[in-house]
Write a structure and sequence with these properties.
658 residues; alpha/beta; Serine Threonine Protein Phosphatase 5, Tetratricopeptide repeat; 6-stranded parallel beta sheet; 14 strands; 9% strand
Length: 658
């Protein structure tokens, strides 16, 4: 046996990607020469490369027992621990290695701290890396990614401005800078940065998604249509691997089919939770009832989730369900957060814990069911639910699409939202509630609305409105609205004011269609109570087509403003229809854009019919199941019990009709 020759042969095999025979050779050498550190180290290294991390660690430990300062083994051990989701054990090793300002060690330290949700310390590590090794591009990229994810957007932009000056030819840095500029509403600069990123590196798939968003937010529909077609074709051809063209949440704003939405969600699952996470400590819930139901969300704060579901938790029948809030988002000090803590049996802040530590806490609480209220939205932590801390797991409310997440057993929906023909769009089994899936706060009579004059509205004209965010304003929707205005010459259209560039383009599009741009009336953003108070000044809410009104639909209806919608072929375009059916006004939910246009014109020309509709809406609201949180909570409990009973009986998840 010639150790040097055999080791050289093994290294050559590994370099050719033939790890199994390389490992076999080195394993034999280690048995013959157990004290040969280079052989044992290469064996450990190849085991790590093969994903056999658990087998690699004892070899590294044996080297370190003999040579405690062997830096390559220390670093490799830290990498192995990180791969096994044992970041807390890797951290002291990386802190020791990073003390010497080794760039790779600093990078790994920052990533370990990020994994442990110690974001400020991770940012410090990446900042330190960019100072001691400004030529190390990975430090700048990781710092930018982290600061953008922390919503420290101004700091992110400052860091990325420095980075692109140092590394002007790195497309990833321009893309991150464009993302930060987009968050800050500096659209022209964002578009320039993102276009430059793609000119440098056309393979930067995420930059395409951010650029698509920038085009939408500035109503640059020609460029949007071109880029959307490119992204869609790449998704259909299955060309995108390991990158996310746009998030599932962002995809809702574009006319993807239900199947395409599911494919995008699958890409997001692979991107956000790579590999097969090792399950958390196996939960052993206590005998039910009551069921311990954990609600996992970053949005227990001033957020649309609480504007919808905020009344539900206090109405849970404690003999059936024991609600526990698991927060992974920022503490904004709002009344909503305090109320959530008051209305649940427990309020647990998991935001500072790693995914594994958070999952183990949920498992230790013996949750029967975990309901993820966000999945992939901002600040969401999908890696927690991916560790399976509860025996039954569901998604509800926060994601208007299938999650495609294999760890989520059920999606909570309703029959209008997801009719039988659309069930195939979902990876989850469906719990169908009898009315609308969208929880809403209890209804109370609206107060006196401000005068139209104070809102910049004409007293004597028909006021159509759509208070959807401007990201929902696509070419087809705006064209439809202009066609309605053309048929109703006495009408004006009241919209939330978009960015200046979008406003200019929308007014130009109106003028081109023969509509006086003065008939577009722009509403400024207001605090929520003031926004709700002004809604009754409108006569009719006309919904967007591709991604319709959700919270905004509930807001308008509760304030007595009739709403009409075209129920599309995906969940995101059917929420308003779901609410209208629950209210007892199904005729206001039509099935096509042409039918929506016809209905808007009919109602606009018959003011007495419109007034009668408004009266009817006000009669229905006090007794409507759409605004009855106690009844809604009871139906949720029915669904939870049915799902749990299937699990307790050893049955697989199946569709459940409540």
């Amino acid at each position: 046996m010639n150790i040097d020759q055999d080791m050289a042969k093994a290294i050559k095999l590994a370099q050719a990607g033939k790890l199994t025979p390389a490992i076999a050779i080195l394993d034999g050498l280690v048995r013959a020469a157990p004290s040969a550190v280079p052989v044992r180290y290469n064996l450990a290294l190849f085991l790590l490369m093969a994903g056999r991390h658990t087998e690699a660690l004892p070899h590294l430990d044996r080297i370190l027992a003999a040579q405690p300062g062997h830096s390559p083994s220390l670093f490799s051990k830290a990498k192995g621990l990180m791969a096994l989701d044992r970041a807390a054990e890797a951290l002291p090793i990386l802190e020791r290695l990073a003390a010497g300002n080794d760039p790779e060690s600093l990078l790994a330290l920052g990533n370990a701290l990020r994994t442990l949700s110690r974001m400020e310390e991770a940012a410090q590590a990446f900042h330190r890396l960019t100072r001691v090794a400004p030529g190390f591009v990975g430090g700048h990229i990781n710092l930018g990614i982290l600061l953008v994810s922390m919503a420290d957007t101004q700091a992110a932009l400052s860091a990325l401005d420095d980075a692109v000056r140092l590394h002007p030819g790195v497309g990833e840095l321009h893309a991150l800078r464009g993302q930060a500029l987009l968050r800050l509403g500096r659209h022209s600069e964002a578009i320039a940065a993102l276009e430059k990123a793609l000119a440098i590196n056309p393979a930067l798939v995420p930059a395409r998604g951010h650029l698509l968003r920038a085009y939408r937010e500035t109503a640059d529909w020609d460029n949007e249509d071109r880029l959307f077609a490119e992204i869609r074709a790449a998704i259909q051809r299955g060309e995108i691997k390991g990158q996310l063209p746009l998030s599932t949440q962002d995809a809702l704003f574009y006319p993807f089919t239900g199947e395409e939405m599911r494919r995008i969600a699958e890409l997001e699952v692979a991107f956000r939770v790579p590999g097969q996470p090792r399950p958390a400590v196996h939960p052993q819930p206590k005998t039910a009832p009551p069921l311990t139901v954990g609600y996992l969300s970053p949005d227990f704060r001033e957020h649309a989730t609480m504007h919808l579901a905020g009344d539900i938790f206090a109405h849970h029948d404690r003999s059936r369900v024991r609600p526990v809030a698991y927060s992974v988002g920022p503490d904004d000090g709002s009344d909503w957060r305090q109320r959530m803590a008051r209305d649940c049996e427990a309020f647990v802040d998991l935001s500072s814990l790693s995914d594994r530590a958070a999952a183990e806490r949920i498992a230790a609480d013996c949750a029967h069911i975990l309901v993820d209220l966000s999945v992939f939205t901002r600040y969401a932590r999908p890696g927690i639910a991916a560790l399976r801390p509860a025996p039954v797991q569901a998604v509800w409310l926060g994601l208007a699409a299938s999650s495609a997440a294999p760890w989520l057993d059920y999606a909570i929906v309703d029959p209008v939202l997801v009719p039988p023909a659309h069930g195939g769009h979902f990876s989850e089994k469906l719990i169908r509630l009898p009315n609308s899936y969208q929880a809403n706060l209890a209804w109370s009579p609206p107060g006196v609305a401000p005068s139209r004059a104070s809102l910049g509205l004409p007293d004597d004209r028909l006021v159509l409105c759509s208070f959807n965010g401007h990201r929902k304003l696509d070419r087809a929707t705006f064209t439809l609205w202009l066609e309605i205005l053309a048929e109703l010459p006495q009408a004006v259209l009241w919209l939330l004011s978009p960015p200046d560039l979008a406003r200019q383009r929308l007014e130009a599009a109106a003028a081109k269609a023969g509509i006086d741009s003065a008939r577009l009336i722009w509403a400024p953003s207001l605090p929520r109570p003031d926004h709700l108070a002004r809604l009754p000044a409108a006569d009719l809410f006309v919904d967007a087509l591709v991604c319709g009104a959700h919270t905004t639909a509930a807001d308008s209806l509760r304030m007595g403003v009739p709403l009409i919608t075209a129920a599309g072929n995906r969940l995101g375009s059917r929420v308003a229809a779901s609410l209208l059916h629950a209210l007892g006004l199904p005729d206001l939910a039509v099935e096509s854009p042409s039918a929506l246009k016809a209905l808007a014109i009919e109602l606009g020309r018959d003011r007495s019919r419109l007034a009668a509709l408004r009266t009817r809406l006000m009669e229905l609201l006090p007794r409507s199941p759409a605004f009855d949180p106690a009844g809604f909570a009871s139906h949720l409990e029915d669904g939870y019990e049915a799902a749990w009973n299937r699990h307790a009986a050893g049955k697989r998840p199946e569709n459940i009709d409540v």
